[in-house]
Amino acid sequence: AVKLEAALPGRLREHLQTIARSVEIHAPPNNPLEGHAETYRQLVAAISARRCVRIRYHSLAEQADIGTRLSPYRLLFSRRSWYVIGRSSLHRDTRTFNLARILGIEVLEDAYTVPTGFSVERHLGNAWHLIPESGPDHEILVRFSAMVAQNVAEVVWHKTQRVEFNPDGTLEFRATVSGLNEVSWWIQGYGDQAEVLEPPELRRIVGQRAARAAALYAQDV
Q1: Which strands form 102-111's sheet, in the order they lie side by side?
Q2: Is residue 130 helix, strand or coil?
Q3: How many Cβ atoms from other residues are within 10 Å of residue 132's Cβ?
């Protein structure tokens, strides 16, 4: 880009520089993955050569450091960090691993093949973000207050979402999701401006967390 700019006529170059100075982009917070560049390079090499890797991983779900033999299918950057998706020998299933929590990696000689028809989109299904859960999908219904309704409606949060404004300015938000945990954290981010109406299980999850939060703030500091 710098070389192309340098080759432009002076007047055009000045015009483009003026335009460039009038635009700023503030990217959302992201994980800089400091110290993980080598992990990234080894995964790229393993995926290119279709070689398995052995990783040590700090699992938040299992609250422990685990080891697994991984057939890495895809590297994915989503929202704030890099992830690798592949079949884990420990879980005997296709799983998603955050590169920032890989503690060690070794590229093996063992070859693997990517299943026919595999795609990130098919694997994730209707997951709210990155973690599809087993079992049938859930139809969720959340009512947002008039204060945040427009903010919610103007963003495409999920590929299945349907929104409808009520006469009083509140918003009915519907979506079909594979699992309730990820979407529950999103709903909680709106605090008392969001109320889960369906399904009862999601309403219970959010309600219990809200009660625990209220108990924390009821205590004297």
Answers
A1: 93-98, 81-88, 64-78, 51-59, 102-111
A2: coil
A3: 19
Q: Which two tokens stand for residue 143?
A: 């009512």
- Residue that has been written with the tokens 């420990």 in this structure: 90
- Residue carrying structure tokens 């919610």: 152
Token representation of residue 113: 């093949």
Per-residue pLDDT reduced to its tens digit, 115-136: 999 999 999 999 999 989 989 9
Instruction: Write out the two tokens for 184.
Output: 């529950």
pLDDT tens sequence across 146-171: 999 999 999 999 999 999 999 999 99
The structure tokens 């519907």 sit at 174
Q: For residue 212, which phi and psi values (nearest 5 degrees)?
A: -65, -40
Residue 69: Cβ within 10 Å count: 17
For residue 203 the two structure tokens come to 């309403």
Measure the CA angle with vertex 215, ends 210 and 216; round to 5°. Answer: 100
